[in-house]
């Protein structure tokens, strides 16, 4: 199976809203799903006016998920949270991700799409030496997918959770750009 990415378009907002409303996604993303909220939170990125990328994940050309990708420096408040817990190399990228349908979870899709976006990031962000991801400690499936995709846990500590019901404890994961041999 092959994984590819393309920028989310406004035409996919209804699909995204449905995914965000699915209980397995809503638990961790804690996102409003009205058309107005999806427009508010994803419209600028879809138009290319945001430094982050909202990427539709395609498995064999069928949409299965979403990955958000950006450089931490473009979001100083988020960068500060990372820097409070660990060293952050200049130009470090970060990702967030979801699998849209519950029936697709538990099949290795998360690990595969994370591994694919890591490979893509080394090309798309040639100045990034690392990718770092913060995951709420209670989201075991997410941090296990990172580990299976080659990330290593480098720190843990309090960060602002996406969902206010979560404890602030987060695990910080990192993968470094492969070095030429």
TrEMBL record:
Domain N-acetyltransferase as annotated: residue spans: 3-178
PROSITE patterns, A to Z: GNAT
Keyword Nucleotide-binding assigned: no
Gene3D superfamilies, per database record: 3.40.630.30
Keywords: Antibiotic resistance
Top-rank taxon: Bacteria
Name of the molecule in the record: Aminoglycoside 6'-N-acetyltransferase
Organism: Kribbella orskensis
